C-alpha cells in the first residue's frame, strides 16, 4: 500500500493521487468528497509475511526480492520463510519442522562481491512453543531457500529476533 503524503490543490474528489507514480503498480489512493483518501494495495504474494527484508545495498532503489517470515498459525501449515519475486509476483517457500514453530526475522547476508541481490544466505531464528522442543537457527541459500545448515540454541526459549539477545556463556 502506498499512502500519499501531499495532496495537490488541483486534486479533485475521485482522482487517483498515485496516477503519476510509475512505481505504484495497481495501488490506488482515491481522494474522497470529505477530503479523506481511500487506499488500496496490490497483492504481491498469496502468502502473508512479516518482518520483510531485502538487499539493503539497494535501499531507496529498485530491488527484485523480498524475504519474510510466515507467522500465520494453522494446525497443519508449516510455511516458514517466503521469498517473493517482485518482478513476476512468484514466490519460493521454506517449510519449518512443525506447524507450531515460529520463524523470526530472516536476515540476508550477501556473499562478498555478490553480483545478484539474492546471492548469499538468510539467517533465520526459529522459536519453538512446545515443551521439550528446542529453538534452532537455519541458514538458507537466499536464491533457492534450500537449507544449508542449522544449529540448535541450547536454551528453552529465544525471542523472535536477534536484537539485543545475550546469554551467559556455558563451558
TrEMBL record:
Transmembrane segments: none annotated. Its cofactor is Fe(2+). Belongs to the carotenoid oxygenase family. GO terms for molecular function: beta-carotene 15,15'-dioxygenase activity; carotenoid dioxygenase activity; metal ion binding. Pfam families: RPE65. Binds 1 Fe(2+) ion per subunit. GO terms for biological process: carotene catabolic process; retinal metabolic process. Keywords: Iron, Metal-binding, Oxidoreductase. This is Retinoid isomerohydrolase. Fe cation binds at residue 163.
Amino acid at each position: 500500500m502506498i499512502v500519499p503524503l501531499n495532496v495537490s490543490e488541483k486534486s479533485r474528489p475521485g482522482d487517483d493521487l498515485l496516477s503519476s507514480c510509475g512505481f505504484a503498480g495497481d495501488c490506488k489512493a482515491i481522494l474522497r468528497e470529505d477530503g479523506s483518501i481511500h487506499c488500496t494495495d496490490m497483492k504481491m504474494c498469496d502468502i502473508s509475511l512479516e518482518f520483510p527484508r531485502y538487499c539493503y545495498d539497494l535501499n531507496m532503489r529498485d530491488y527484485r526480492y523480498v524475504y519474510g517470515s510466515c507467522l500465520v498459525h494453522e494446525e497443519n501449515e508449516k510455511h516458514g520463510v517466503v521469498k517473493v519475486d517482485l518482478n513476476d509476483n512468484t514466490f519460493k517457500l521454506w517449510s519449518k519442522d512443525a506447524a507450531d514453530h515460529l520463524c523470526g526475522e530472516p536476515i540476508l547476508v550477501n556473499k562478498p562481491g555478490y553480483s545478484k541481490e539474492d546471492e548469499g544466505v538468510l539467517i533465520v531464528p526459529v522459536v519453538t512453543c512446545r515443551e521439550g522442543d528446542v529453538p534452532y537457527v537455519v541458514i538458507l541459500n537466499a536464491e533457492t531457500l534450500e537449507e544449508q545448515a542449522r544449529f540448535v540454541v541450547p536454551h528453552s526459549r529465544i525471542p523472535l529476533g536477534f536484537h539485543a539477545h545475550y546469554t551467559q556463556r556455558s563451558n
